[in-house]
Task: structure prediction
Amino acid sequence: MSEPARLAPLAVTMGEPAGVGGELTLMAWLARRAAGDAVPFFAIDDPARLRRLAQRLSLAVDVVEIDAPAAAAGVFTRALPVLTQPLAVEDRPGHLDVRNAPAAIASIERAATLARDGRVGAVVTNPIQKKTLQDAGFPYPGHTEFLAALGGTSGRPAEVVMMLACRELRVVPVTIHVALRRALDALSTDLIVRAGRIAVHAVRRDCGLDAPRLAVAGLNPHAGEGGTMGDEETRIVAPAVAALRAEGIDATGPMSPDTMFHAAARARYDLALCMYHDQALIPIKTIDFAGGVNVTLGLPFIRTSPDHGTALDIAGTGSADPGSFLAALDMAVDMARHRATRALAA
Result:
């Protein structure tokens, strides 16, 4: 199905220059160009790097520099449009270089700015190498926190949560990029309510679900089994479920984490709220490792990303699977369509 003309092109970020992001961008252009009716995207990247990669991998991709996002549509059918973000030094696949970290950071910032200005329909981010960016002075744990800062107002970050999604499952972890011990110490009723509220409101707007059903996981084995395996369900999680229900949200729980992700259980909810990172990511990566998408909910713009890392060990070999990146592009288009439709109806 062709997209409405009002849907602006997508912006794709550079990601870690030594990782697989560049080749995923090239492969995605080939796949979406072949589809013929795809919403165009452009990369915010170093054109010379992408040309080197295309030559190295024998990918028939012409790279054309553009001056503005609006030019992407006129280029996309014949070449990959690129808004130039030069690297400090020539990249080497699989070899990290902190000197190129500022370019990767600038690519994300430029994409977010264009999205906030309404010049792109969504942002699709390639994977970053967090430690390399942090060695260059990047003060954020990852993409989610940086985008929250870029999407905020009056000096305050946007209220966001991370969602991982595939066709069969959507999950939101309440705590994310912290050590497990710190995550357990940080867990609170207020934090669970905040995450559930942001997630439900966002999927209503961006996923076409008018009344999403929210399943809330317990923390302990068997959701505490009546307090014999921990009392966090009684003290923290159950009050959060009650508070969400009082706000009109169709929330259920605490549910036993070991029985809530099989197919029959998944049919009873639209979104799962999990207490910590791996509780959310293990089921979705088991169900659809190649097709999972990372989404930042709560931003004033749409952001998706493949649900995998930089894969330095295979970078530059052409063996990277573009499935998750293509799914991220498709989900960005779907979310942009839902958001535009809801805005027109408002």
Remarks:
- The chain has two domains: 1-159+299-346, 168-287.
- Residues 1-5 have pLDDT under 50 and may be disordered.
- The first strand starts at residue 10 and ends at 13.
- Residues 168-287 form a domain with the Isopropylmalate Dehydrogenase fold (CATH 3.40.718.10).
